[in-house]
Amino acid sequence: xLALIAFVVATPVAAQSVVVSPSAATISxxxxxxxxxxxxxxxxxWPGGYALITETRTxxxxxxxxxxxxxxxxxxxxxxTAIVTGLPNGVREKNRDARLLSAAGLVDAYLKRQVxxxxxxxxxxxxREQTALVTSGPDGGVILxxxxxxxxxxxxxxxxxxxxxxxxxxxxxKPTLSVITNSTRAVKATVTLSYIAGGFDxxxxxxxxxxxxxxxxxxxxDVFGWLTIANGGAQSFPGTNLMAVAGKPNRVGNxxxxxxxxxxxxxxxxxxxxxxxxxxxxxxxxxxDEDFAYDEEIQVESARLFALPMAAPPPPPAPVAAVVAxxxxxxxxxxxxxxxxxxxxxxxxxxxxxxxxxxxxxRRVYKGQSIYNxxxxxxxxxxxxxxxxNKKEKGLGLPLPSGQGMVFENADMGNQLVGEITVKDRAIxxxxxxxxxxxxxxxxxxxxxxxxKKSRSYRLVLSNSNPFAVSAEIKFPDTLRNLPKxxxxxxxxxxWFVTVPANDSSDITVEVPLQ
Length: 515
Description:
Elements lengths: L15 E5 L5 E7 L16 E13 L2 E8 L11 E3 L7 E5 L5 H7 L4 E7 L6 E10 L6 E4 L2 E4 L7 E4 L12 E8 L3 E23 L8 E14 L5 E10 L20 E2 L17 E2 L7 H12 L19 E5 L2 E5 L4 E3 L3 E22 L1 E2 L2 E2 L2 E11 L13 E9 L2 E10 L7 E5 L3 E13 L3 E10 L5 E6 L11 E4 L2 E8 L3 E10 L2
Parallel strand pairs: 1-4, 2-15, 13-25, 21-30
Antiparallel strand pairs: 2-3, 3-13, 4-12, 5-13, 6-12, 7-8, 7-11, 8-9, 9-10, 13-14, 14-21, 15-19, 15-20, 16-17, 18-19, 21-24, 22-23, 24-27, 24-28, 25-26, 28-29, 29-33, 30-32, 31-32
């Protein structure tokens, strides 16, 4: 009896793919400042801060193994920080698809692979196609190997372009985080993705309306602060619950990641003449885009390539704020929550009102230091400072995050810009000194009066060319002895406190010991 044995070979079932669109997500974003920027401005090309982004999406998960693809995540995503919750059986594997579809990305993906090169004869209009091997690129030019030898793309003078055989599987149109999961049955689940991403930053931009200064140098100043959020990435986040954290959390640095927008495809050519025939100043030709730059388009391209970067626009004037970010305590830090959903657009900035404090009490004081230990500055222009206290009874009494500010003063022609200031972090109760640019209207002329082996005597003449009196404070070395009349120690430092009438001057003589 012949026994028949049937062998059944099991065919592995491919994992099913589930693509989650960013438009279906509820997004929350908390932005942290660049901890190394200080009081400087935001890097507009790639901000040095980071953000905690949380996206909640409802998806249909099929039975069996499936790949969940979260499209539209920030390209600055740190994959080791990504947390996915809500999947029935958790996450088995996690991948960050960092290669984005672009002209440069395609060339990079086709290195050592064949493409079709299409060229058009300008005179006859005849189109010729040939096979070429991409041997180098995309940074610094695309080198091709054809039947005629080795050449560079776009260097023949003919309109030409490359045609690719297909889209590589590892290229994605959007930054994507994919996870592999396994479910025993088909289920509809609410999934939350949280991660930290670089390429974000924020700062405060202040608009200060000083009105008119009183004769006693006191002023009630309207203090308005913008919360400015910067997104340096190519991904937009519509309808976001936006927050910003003031302070410096203790964050350990991560390994550097590529700034995911791949560089533009830059094509370079070299002269075809012999060495002695090439003019010394002849540069190579450079095209920045995939499309061929015809003669009539070259001027446009050159203007874009070599134009100087635009300066950041000044903060808008203080409006009547309809929406103001709400301040909350976050441990030792401060959190500012925008009460409405906002759009955080790609390569853009979002501004929301965060501080509205009318009639804050300040006074204008001219400050400087003309004499140092052992030497002096003959002529010194003093800097006007807006001096105040961050207290509720003075009209403030709230945390003031660091940033930039502009000071306006009422004039006959309306509000006029007085100058720009740098604001440092100030807690409640701190003293405030906001310095404006130095002015020659109030200056100190210092001359050496007498000198011995043990000391030097200096005569200081403080002149005021303003049509109003000014209040001034001038610091001296802490070794100063025999303090003259009108001088006293402020926090242990000898300081000359003086009020100079309009179009007048005051003088003082001090003795500095030699060390």
